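Quarterly update from the structural biology core.
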Amino acid sequence: MQFSEADQAKPELQGAIQKSDKAAERLDAARDAVPNKSPGKPHTNPLFRPIQEAGAAIHGKVREVEQENSGVQSGHLGERSFEKTVGYGNRRVQNWRAERKLKPWRDAAKAEQAAVKANADFYYRKAVAENPQLASNPISRLWQKRKLQKQYAAAYRAAGKTAQAGKTAETTAKAAKKTAQESKRTALFLKRHWKGALIVGGIGLLLVMLLGSLQSCSSMFGGGVSNIMASSYLSEDADMLAAEEAYCAKEDELREYLDTYEATHDYDEYHFDLDEIEHDPYVLISILSALHEGVFTIDQVQGDLQTLFDKQYILTETVTTETQYRTETRTDSEGNTYTVRVPYTWTICTVTLENFDLSHVPVYMMGEEQLSLYATYMSTLGNRPDLFPSSGYVNKYIENPPTAWEIPAEYLTDERFNTLITEAEKYLGYPYVWGGSSPSTSFDCSGFVSYVLTNSGLCNTGRLGAQGLYNISTPVSDPKPGDLVFFVGTYDTTGVSHVGIYLGDGMMLHCGDPIQYSNLNTSYWQSHFYAYGRPPYN
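Predicted structure, tokenized:
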């Protein structure tokens, strides 16, 4: 790829140019390593048969040991995970030679993809330099960048020859500047999903929230028509509904496995400690949309569905044995009867199922940009409240959003509290995102309080959990506006589990779901109340 002298002279483009050059060098090297002769078809090695028989024999031995009830079993959704392991190992051995033969072609294909991505990144950075508004916020930045990458890749493939890539890239770069096309995509989206848009628009959310007038989303979306698309589910309804159906099928399979556990296992005693099997469909679709840059098909997310399922549901099956005794009556050689205590093995199976909560999973598998997308989709429900109308999020976010509360004017005369609450109220309405700690990713309860304290300049806490915030605070019995309020037992954890900012008059501002004002005098908050605390303000 050739760069003009003007582009090479711009400091902001130097990094992208260097990456493009390096990617091109790696592509040339990978292509040079490709043999002239194409790889032949893989052949089955007759030596694999003994390996298969050995695997079957080992598996039979495992079953025998299990029937003797010795040792400890544990696993996830299966009694015979060893069989899968043997089968997987078999396949890996069988495919080893074929994979090695194909490696030069795979390396060349990967190098070509990297080169295309590097070139697209150059044109994106060039477009940002010429149009600074493209980098106005994380959502717009990521969406525009991914769109340009896809356009460049599609045009590159259509060109067919490397010599034409420069002309293709130039065309793609110009296309990236035509923002008027976004209005057409928005119109198409609204035409396809007019019912959902009508529901949202009916309460003033579609235009108010997405065009930046609603305070809670103004910093997550920079404003403009393109943000409607950036915050919308763009996958086909059939694919989104199929993904939800497939996930529910996995839950049904798990539920059936547990419901019939005693009938399908042979232990003497059972103990069950099982969480509910449930998830919210908007959480699932928002995760999948964030992982796939806004658009996915059901075929593309099969692996993601299993990964999410494995992270949400943690099934543990533990078998222990103990020696018990029973009394038996026996007869001696002279015909006299007597009793003896005879030992026998008693097997106890303990089954636990932890529902980690699907909404807690994103922070452990996403980077900041993907987490930002996830938070955006959740804050708008993809602009599709009609997709899963029975979801609790529709009620919380759309039909009955949190009510406002006016802080008494006399409380705002305190300069420190005024500074604190001015910062905190910027994020009213942001969705709860487990592990979130900034406006770009949204917040969880402690991330919200930590960020507000630090960003207001009043108390540099860094990122602390609820227990950590309690530990640095001084307990108070007569709280004042600006103190913190702590709770326990709001979810399954030890110690302090939730924190909010006390506002006075029995009210707090906290990251519930979403960030909102709440009355501390309700039965729920009273039952979980722990203490008030004053942070170490500067």
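Residues 383 and 450 are 30 Å apart (CA to CA).
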